[in-house]
Amino acid sequence: MASIVPAPNGYRAHVFVRGVRDSQTFRTQREAKVWAARRETELREQSAQSPGERVSLADVLQRYSAEVSPTKRGRRWEQLRLDLFGRDAVLPVAQPVGHLTPEQIAAWRDYRAGQVQPGTVIREMGLLSAVLEHARREWRLIPANPVRDVRKPRSPDHREVVIGWRQIRAMCRAMGYRTTGRITETRQAVAVCFLVALRTGMRAGELSGLTWDRVRGDHVVLPVTKTVPRDVPLEPRARALIERMRGWDELMVFGLRPASLDALFRRYRERAGLSGFTFHDARHTAATRMAAHVDVLTLCKIFGWSSTKQALTYYNPSASALAARLAERTGRGRSR
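and the corresponding structure tokens:
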């Protein structure tokens, strides 16, 4: 029950309902009683609500961005995306998270499908699902994750781009690459990075983050990758390319940030009059070429894949190349 006590400027009302205290000062005793009665009713109603009815989706997104995202490697992208979620015109961010329904998520999915590519919608739905799953399991705000009951768009076909030698030569010319001499320009460093990617299958982020202390003669050590740590073997030409970078940067092998590498690569691709491939396609190209010389398990080890299915995604030799390999094996069998 509320208590009303005299105060220097009038009367102060005190309320205490189910562990929650509040107080306020009023000019008259009557005003204090009216406020106390109304405030007690509000606190009783709030205490009867579930946690998910008292917290909005926007609050959950902000909390996840502040507490969970910083623990992840992709925190920058994730926090930017969560900020966009909070300002989305279709996603009901002002609504209590406990009232969120699969139908609302489906409407948002359909809206986003008209704005961006299916792959982007899938990634955004995955992030929203991770947020709500964390709210369910760790914060106990909701009994179920509504995103789980919403069908995701069909995954786009995996890119099957193998960069040809003519394209590689044109890129090297556009970047001013020379086969001898010191590396003296950023564009030349990009060219060497590209050529190493073609011979090792390393990702742009792995190459950009490669430091000299991780270069061990016939291999490089990658303690942090997109999947699991791994050691990448270096064939002689790849070793020679990396050694050419000596003196360019004291700490980093290539002295390039991932975002800069991607932007510069696109710029020189346009300058070369080319299109249809990205820096990441160098990884696909490397896998396709290596697959002609090593078994699938070795390929998985080199590229850090935990499943042979991933190797089959990157391994895309032409039918002619497969026919040539079969003919070679058949010929060996007959000679015996």
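(Above: one complete record from the training split.) The mean pLDDT is 89.
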